[in-house]
Specification:
Blueprint: H1 4-19, E1 24-30, H2 33-50, E2 53-60, H3 63-71, E3 77-81, H4 82-89, H5 98-113, E4 115-117, E5 127-132, H6 144-148, E6 156-158, H7 160-164, H8 169-176, E7 185-186, H9 189-197, E8 203-207, E9 218-221, E10 233-238, H10 239-244, H11 248-253, H12 261-272, H13 278-288
Parallel strand pairs: 1-2, 6-7, 6-8
Antiparallel strand pairs: 3-10, 4-10, 5-8, 5-9
């Protein structure tokens, strides 16, 4: 027979039981291989550490589409970048100091999306201009501003997301006033590299963690006007998910600082160059780092 004290305690115990129940979450990502890989790392980590049940919504086109899914409660956790968060999602003034950056992001996410973010993952993926190293037009050029000084113009290639993003193509054109010859070629990054090698484009825009940049046949032009600010990777999560399943936060935070620049480039190479599956690469890395 339940005493009054036990009756009063029963709802509290039930609430605690709900907080420690098996997490059921949705992990998402944009369409880029890097985003999909980090989302798989997140999912595998939660599944293996907490026996969580994860639905995956990966390969979504556009940062705002993923963000809207989070705002609408259709997604609980996904990888993002600070520059996208400031320029596209929150439409806020970008920050240079890492601690201030996190603080402003967390406040903006909480107000606008009932969400927050964890400490940075450890790498940055900054927009990067690439040319062929053996192209005589670029032998003497080291900087984007030098390329922009040409009046003949260049054939530019980039992804459709870069072209449409407020923090991408528009800023490149505004800051550098880069003259183009012909229309911009919009293709996936792997096809853009093929176009660069075939001399169908002169300059392509990719990310600084692109594993192809390790190949000496490519040359990176310095963003000397600092148009593209630091862009560290970060995990965004829905506050309601963290309240319902508080165990997920320390597990997710175990990734913070673990994905340094070289690690991210090497993991991307496994997926993009060695054509390995996202799950295999994610599990292998988590196991090697003793995170699972």
């Amino acid at each position: 027979m339940l005493t009054r004290r036990k009756l009063l305690a029963a709802p509290v115990l039930a609430g605690l039981s709900g907080c420690t129940s098996t997490p059921k979450l949705v992990a998402g990502s944009r369409e880029t291989p890097e985003n999909r890989l980090i989302a798989e790392i997140i999912a595998q980590l939660l599944e293996r550490k907490l026996k969580a049940r994860l639905d995956r919504r990966v390969g979504i086109t556009g940062a705002m589409s993923v963000y809207n899914s989070l705002q609408g409660g259709e997604m609980d956790v996904y990888p993002e970048y600070s520059r996208i968060a400031f320029k596209v999602l929150l439409k806020a003034q970008d920050q240079q100091d890492a601690d201030l950056m996190l603080g402003v992001m967390r406040k903006g996410l909480e107000v606008n999306a009932q969400a927050s973010c964890l400490p940075f993952l450890g790498f940055e993926n900054t927009h990067t201009a690439v040319v062929m190293a053996d192209n005589p037009n670029f032998f003497s050029m080291q900087k984007l501003s030098e390329a922009a000084a040409s009046k003949d113009g260049w054939r530019l290639g980039c992804t459709s997301e870069f072209a449409q993003s407020t923090e991408g193509y528009n800023e490149l054109k505004v800051q550098y006033k880069l003259t183009e010859r012909g229309g911009t070629r919009l293709e996936p990054v792997n096809q853009l590299f093929f176009g660069l090698r075939e001399r169908r484009i002169d300059i392509l825009i990719t990310g600084s963690t692109d594993p192809r940049l390790r190949d000496p046949k490519y040359k990176v032009l310095e963003d000397d006007l600092r148009t593209f600010s630091p862009n560290p990777g970060v995990i965004i999560y829905r506050l309601e998910a963290a309240r319902k399943y508080p165990s997920i936060l320390p597990v997710l935070e175990s990734l913070s600082g673990k994905l340094d620049q070289l690690t991210m480039v090497n993991l991307n190479a496994e997926v993009e160059l060695n054509k390995r599956g996202f799950e295999d690469v994610a599990v292998e890395w988590l196991t090697a780092r003793k995170l699972v």
